[in-house]
Amino acid sequence: MTFAPPTPSDLPTTGPFTTLLVANRGEIARRIIRSGRQLGLRCVAVYADADADAPFVGDADQAIRLAGGYLDIPEIVDAARRCGADAVHPGYGFLSENAGFAIAVLAAGLVWVGPPPEVIEVMGDKLAAKRAAVEAGVPTLPSSDDPTEDGAVGYPLLVKAAAGGGGKGMRVVEARGGLAEAVAAARREAAGAFGDDRVFLERYVARSRHLEIQILGDHHGNLVHLGERECSVQRRHQKIIEESPSPVVDPALRLAMGDAALTLARAIGYRSAGTVEFLFDEERREFFFLEVNTRLQVEHPVTEEVTGIDLVAEQLRLAAGEPLGYTQDDVTFTGHAIEARLYAEDPDAGFLPATGTLRAFAPAAAPAVRWDSGVEVGSVVGVDFDPMLAKVVAHAPSRSAAAGRLALALERLHLGGVTTNRDFLAATLRHRAFLAGDTTTDFIDRHAPATRLVLASDEVHRTAVAAALWLQGRNRTGATVLTGLPSGWRNARLPAQQVELRFGDQTVEVRYRARRDGSFVIGESGSALVHRWSPEEIDVEIDGRRARMQITAGGGGGEEHLHVQVERGTVHFAVVPRFTPPGAGGADAAGGFRAPMPGVVLEVACVPGEEVGAGRTLVVLEAMKMEHHVKAPSAGRVAEILVATGQQVENGQLLVVFEQDGAGPTGPVAEGG
Q1: Which of 59, 203, 236, 400 has a 20 to 30 Å separation from 152 between CA atoms?
Q2: 500 within a domain of the structure (yes/no)
């Protein structure tokens, strides 16, 4: 099937519709379906093979498989025809800012839920967008279209992809010596993510804030803005915590940024929902235009919470040709909202994406927060798509109350099976600097919130005791003989039962002995009493302290894992087998190091026998559309290369053998791109 788009001027742009095809996946597909149903629309999903069992597929009235995936424009348009859809919503990411896709949808006689294709085309090119901002009188940062002309920009500078967003194709360069490598890496990443390898240079402001204005425009010339969001807490130039309103924006600044956003929107003929993004220099209290996102933003729920306006419903209404029906004076703001993005990633490894199967995923009933999630228990997190699991949003009368509510909701989420940034998010939300509003874009580098749940030794031991007694209860439940006797019962005093649980790099030994009254002696002098046991939880009193803990068991790596919910998060134990099967174990491969994640080798930047300096890139991996540079930890010699460009590698696969100067073989470090 070939695709030859007509010119935008030949196409109708709006009209009523009854069946909506959602050309996206995950949590945003579920979100769109939810609002579509509220408006009485039938909703159709499309899915790639990797998403065949995803929750959004079951949410839709019907779903159509895409053999070519989410970027296959002709196949998606054909799917809309086949299912009788008369409108298409692109969500965000994928084709949402692809003018060619919008044109194809309109050419098929379908309603496009989004801005006009010509607006998408101009604003999707950051260079053209910046020129439009200059013409509209909106302030911009010094920049250069030529990635070799760094003199006009100065250092530090940012290499940025001309197309796309989401932090892809972006590199900070501190000095001229790092420019060439940064430009090459940004070009590769941009080409892979957006099919466009153009990059440009822009002045980098390290201590800045990322502020954005939500806009809405109808097909009758009406425009409003819905206030600002602050999205400054980022890693790898990708947002992880967003809020509205910003703690530093006063009414005068809000008015100025809102006017600038609407001025630009009128100049380009904007319709539908969109976002005008600004960089805010807090020291000088100046804002500069960054870009226009011609789609729904990931962080749109915080605006919905403070304004009471359903942005997806507004998109659908406006696409049907309805007028806004309200003016700027009608928009009001109530309370404070904060959103955290829960990702499958490892904060201890530079926030590298993580994979696995969700063995536990159960939000607590309280506190009441909003969960926009694309996963459920049993969902497989692979390397095909963005690793975001959910967006969690708290709304409260004050900023501090919203932060506390959101942190508690994250802590009380029963979660296991995949490494995530949950503990890091909770630590950030409870950090004094965050609560004080000190949320510039370098927040993580300056304040380094805890990356994992930190427990005192007595907390670890008490949790291990609960896990051991839960196992004891499971064993008795599964017993087929002497079912009326407690586990470990003897008619004479014999040694206590023993369970070993591995917690991180330590092994916790729990010794317990059942008393005749049903309680337990723990170790030499401790005590425990199980008040209630079930396959999902245990209500246990340990040394006078009683708690109810959710517990989920699951396999992984040939051993059983227990995910135990405590007050501040989920503790993960591996059950150490009492007996090692013959032939099990064995030493790790000597002299090598392993891939930090599944991915594809983009480049092997060294040769066997080469002497390299500290920080030298040896291998470049791509995973989830992001580059990750494997670098030498110190000066040394490349002893052996075990992979080739284009090769698919699995998590833990040996890549390169590297010999440090004055030491034996070791493993280089991986940096996220």
Answers
A1: 236
A2: yes
Q: Is residue 337 part of a domain?
A: yes
Q: Which tens digits make up the pLDDT trace of 331-347?
A: 999 999 999 999 999 99
Residues 341 and 436 in one domain: yes
Segments forming the whole domain that contains residue 233: 209-447
pLDDT at residue 108, as a whole number? 96
Q: What is the pLDDT of residues 56-109, one digit of tens each?
A: 999 999 999 999 999 999 999 999 999 999 999 999 999 999 999 999 999 999
Tell me whether residue 426 is in a domain.
yes
In the chain, helix, strand, coil percent, each to 5?
Answer: 25, 35, 40
Number of structural domains in the chain:
5
**How many Cβ atoms are within 10 Å of 271's Cβ, its own excluded?**
25
State the first-to-last Cα distance of the chain, in angstroms, to the nearest integer.
36
| Residue ranges of the chain with per-residue pLDDT less than 70 | 1-13, 164-166, 478-495, 556-558, 579-593, 624-625, 662-673
pLDDT reported for residue 513: 94
Count of beta carbons in the 10 Å neighbourhood of residue 61: 15
Of 203, 219, 247, which residue sits at a domain end? 203
Same domain, 494 and 536: yes
pLDDT for res 485:
54
Instruction: Decide: residue 594, CB within 10 A, 0-12 exposed, 13-18 middle, 19+ buried.
Output: middle
- Asked whether residue 229 falls in the same domain as residue 374, the answer is yes
Same domain? For 429 and 503 the reply is no
φ, ψ (nearest 5 deg) of residue 65: -75, 140
Shared domain check, 85 and 59: yes
Residue-level pLDDT at 624: 63
Estimate to the nearest angstrom the gap between the alpha carbon of 124 and the chain centroid: 22
- What is the reported pLDDT for 126? 81
| Orientation angle between helical segments 73-83 and 99-107, nearest 10 degrees | 30
CB 59 within 8 A of CB 30: yes
Distances in Å between the Cα of 44 and the Cα atoms of 58, 89, 379 are 10, 10, 21
Whether 580 contacts 612, CB under 8 Å: no
508 and 621 share a domain? Answer: no
Q: Is 324 left (phi over 0), alpha (psi -120 to 50) or beta?
A: alpha
Residue 505 resides in a domain: yes
Any idea what the Cα angle at residue 308 is, between residues 306 and 312, rounded to 5°? 110
Element housing 2 (H / E): none
Q: 133: part of which helix (H) or strand (E)? A: helix 126-135
> 482, 492 in Cβ contact below 8 A?
no
